[in-house]
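Standup notes
- HV: blocked on the assembly model, inputs below
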Amino acid sequence: MFGSVWPLRNKLARMNSLFVYVLSCCLLIGSTIDLQAQVNINPDSASTEEDYSQYDNLDFAADGAKRFCSPKIEGLSPAKLISIGYDYQFGYSIDADSLNRIYPSPGKSNLHPQKAQILRSEGIRLAANIPVISKTNLVWQLGANYWEQRYTFSNPDSLQNPLLLALRENALRTAGLNTTLFKPLNDKQFILFQGSADYSGDYTLKNLMPLQYLKYSAALIWGKRPHEKKQWGIGIARTYRVGELNYIPVVLFNYTDVANKWGSEILFPARAHVRRTINSRNMVFAGYELEGQSYRLWSSNLPGSAVDLNKEDLEIRRGEIRLRLVYEFSLRNFIWMSIQAGYRINYRFDVDRLASGKEIYRAFGFASKEPYVMLNGLGNPFYVNVSINLVSP
Amino acid sequence: MKKTLLFIAMLVSAISFSSFHFVDEGGDRLLGVWEPSNGRARVKIEKIGTKYYGKIVWLKEPNDPKTNQPKTDKNNPDPTLQNVPLKGYRMLKDFVYQGSDEWSEGTIYDPLNGSTYSCSIKMDDPNTLNIRGYIGVSALGRTDVWKRLAIKK
């Protein structure tokens, strides 16, 4: 009896062994794969040795695919997507001219020149730049900004000059929209276009100006990017950087040295900085920026003013040179802080009267010698500017 | 009994293999070697488990010009990782195929500044990827176009 049962039991035992073997294999393979996956996933660097020379002789898989140069170079300071800042100029004097070129009557004494002391001028500076199209062959970015400059006088009640009264009552504001187009022509050459429309004046939310007073600026640059650490370009700009409208040549030169320690970020004459890279999250700059705008004098019925500036078609041409040191560093990941300190040198703070509603194009005196209606003098103070920035990937 | 045992064995096998060998033909189109628009590197995208990862396999400038040694991840905010070689570094991590030629839930690491960004990938055509790195929301980001590479003909 037992003799007939043993072969069957042996057979069943063999089958069970086979089943256990198959099951073990399945689980072993599965767990090995899982373990392998975990081993490979965990480290940042791939753990397996690989012959990387096999990737030397590769080319684009698609026929006709081309390489285009990038808008950035290695080592450049990060582009700011969102910026919230504050600008503060320490005290300085202002010599406001008379308005006698408009009102020659000697009877209006409160149009006479007046000297005053500004305790501080300050204001917030907001900016946002959002990439709309980021293709290899086209990069398009849109931006918006809002700056204001408020003036605090040491003797506000003694002011009579209409310009000083306007500055006392309302901040100078600029709200603008801008766009940047980067069009690579091939892997070395590119065209860069920047345009902006600025709404600048001493307006308030309750007393906005018509859009006809928008000021348009633009720059068109052709450039080359010979390698990853250098790009240069030449072009032309329509600008209000020194207050009045000008058409000027511009030169772009961005460079990073081999060791990634020193570099330049230059868009001459608008700004030029030497960059010292402490590491990829700490940078120091030394240089200057030309800053300026044309502000419509839009305030009306200023208390104590002998004239209504709103009706006089007047614009302040403000241009200044900011010699500065800037320290930019990462606070946390993509949040960067920028601290700048420097000396603000006044170039122009004059008031121009539009000719039949049109601004006078002087071309540094070559196109027109029409005088400004107010030639004002400003002292040159030290200033600081602090901003928190969300930087672009 | 035999049939039951056999059924259980097949079931366990099926579960085991389906867990570890989930084949997603659409998602696997991402596999291959790709070149970012700056042309400075080549990235091999692989699949590990059910997710996709990309490692640097080629650098235009493989050595640090200062030391003449192979480049390492010197900008990494974690000092213990600053000596990890860039070649072989996984700069794309944890991408999951979502269908419709899109992979998301991943991150991209930029060795130039040591930052890691949220990232999504959209395949424009079989040889072109739109890689969007962003901060929090997709609008606060930048898209880079990567091209597929193949052995020179």
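- HV (later): unblocked. The CA atoms of residues 72 and 83 of chain B lie 5 Å apart. Chain B is about 10% helix and 50% strand.
- Next: hand off to the docking folks.
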